[in-house]
Design goal:
The protein is α/β, with parallel strands linked by helices and 359 residues long. The protein has 2 domains: 2-46 and 151-220 and 316-356, FAD/NAD(P)-binding domain (3-Layer(bba) Sandwich); 83-147 and 221-313, D-Amino Acid Oxidase, subunit A, domain 2 (D-Amino Acid Oxidase, Chain A, domain 2). 28% of the residues lie in helices and 28% in strands. The strands form 3 sheets. Strands 1, 2, 7, 8, 9, 10, 17 and 18 form an 8-stranded mixed beta sheet that branches. It is elongated. The model has no long low-confidence stretch (mean pLDDT 96). The structure holds flavin-adenine dinucleotide. Flavin-adenine dinucleotide is lined by residues 8-14, 31-34, 39-42, 44-48, 50, 173-174, 202-206, 210, 225, 227, 267, 309-311, 336-342.
Length: 359
């Protein structure tokens, strides 16, 4: 089979890139090793369209803000739900007011005006978010967050790609690839080979393996995030502790409303022993409840589900969007950890821009 671009990986990043490329009139094929799209990291996240991403100097922070804005457009265009919500960064105890004032000042300096950063007292937080506990004495409120449904987003992206003439091959693992001056040939586990003029490596946790076929060296290390889903209490907005430096255990995380009405806690942050290590312990679940229950006015119901995701991290802890040393027509997307869901539409535009002149 011959196409202009082959994308390896049908997670949100590969699908957004393929959708964007197909919109420019080039032929695109996405190959995915799993039987359904989005079964990797893209179905094991917190569903949040983020605003604040630290450090502000990073590529992931910039693309987080750009991607966030693009979601409103894609939600209409592709027909998936996006609920805009506020986030409250809550403080309690002595010095709560001054800490929120200082953090709000810093965030106003770093974030665009649409984030409408404000400092508000606890009673106003409770008016706007009745699930917030009396422990919250002050909070920094940030606008412009969003919540989506992972499965819905992936299925709408797959449909949108199909409508633009792109092809999606499932249960089709790319097992090797070779590049020459004119073409890239990818061999699939199904026995079919795909001949393309360009390749996008969106293989998530396995993007280092795909890059190695072209002699490009990266190391992706999995970092585990455990999340729990609860029926009660229900929240309207994101609630979390005020901390500009994320703690190692939670990397931030929070209490997050889900589109179906349930409440998600987390994610946590821990090392994983392999790229298939989805284990968790009761201690992981208890740690989340211990951390976030004090922010809630009602008792937390027992979790109805525990979700474990693996972040594809690199040593730089930032996104890597880079051409292969072997060919400018091969683009590696490596280290697309959080906020990769949020940034995916912005990453897609960069990829389309990088390949645009070459196709
Ligand atoms: C616990 C946790 C919570 C998170 N929460 C958020 C959040 O709330 N908001 C946010 O913005 N981000 C969040 N993220 C980050 C976000 O989920 C990821 O950045 C994003 O899903 C990455 O998408 P991807 O397409 O790059 O990876 P994946 O979804 O993993 O896609 C890669 C695909 O490539 C396929 N593949 C791999 N190798 C091959 C091969 N050789 N041949 C064919 N196919 C192959 C895989 O099967 C997979 O489907 C979170 C991450 C974690 C772990």
């Amino acid at each position: 089979m011959k196409v202009d671009v082959v994308v390896i990986g049908a997670g949100v990043v590969g699908l957004f890139a393929a959708y964007e490329l197909a919109g420019t009139g080039v032929s695109v094929a996405v190959v995915e090793k799993e039987p359904r799209p989005g079964m990797g990291v893209s179905s094991r996240h917190a569903n949040v369209i983020h605003v604040i991403q630290l450090p502000f100097s990073s590529l992931k922070s910039r693309l987080c803000l750009e991607g966030n804005r693009l979601y409103s457009r894609y939600s209409e265009e592709l027909g998936f739900r996006l609920r805009r919500v506020k986030a409250y960064l809550a403080a309690s105890g002595p010095g709560a007011k001054i800490r929120t004032v200082l953090v709000a000042r810093y965030l106003r300096w770093k974030l665009p005006p649409w984030a409408q950063v404000a400092t508000i007292p606890g009673n106003r937080v409770r008016d706007e978010e009745p699930a917030a506990s009396d422990n919250v004495s002050w909070a920094v409120a940030v606008n412009g967050y969003g919540v989506i449904d992972a499965e819905e987003l992936v299925s709408r992206l797959a449909r949108g790609l199909d409508e633009r003439g792109g092809e999606l091959f499932l249960s089709a693992e790319a097992v090797s690839a070779a590049v020459s001056d004119e073409k890239i040939v990818v061999e699939l586990s199904t026995g079919i080979s795909v001949e393309a003029r360009a390749l996008v490596n969106a293989a998530g946790l396995y993007s280092d393996r795909v890059a190695s076929w072209f002699g490009d060296s990266y190391m992706v290390t999995p970092a585990k995030g455990v999340m729990t889903i609860h029926e009660k209490p229900r929240v309207r907005s994101i609630l979390t502790h005020l901390a500009l430096k994320p703690s190692r255990e939670t990397k931030g995380g929070g209490i997050i409303p889900q589109l179906g009405g349930r409440t998600l806690l987390g994610p946590s942050y821990a090392e994983a022993s392999s790229k298939e290590d989805y284990r968790y312990s009761p201690a992981d679940v208890e740690a989340l409840a211990r951390r976030f229950a004090p922010l809630l006015s009602e008792p937390l119901s027992s979790p109805v589900e525990v979700i474990v995701g693996l972040r594809p991290t690199t040593r730089s802890r930032d996104f890597i969007i880079r051409r292969s040393d072997r060919s400018p027509r091969i683009i590696h997307l490596v280290g697309i950890e959080s906020p990769g869901l949020t940034a995916a539409p912005a990453i897609a535009r960069i990829v389309a821009g990088m390949l645009g002149k070459l196709l």
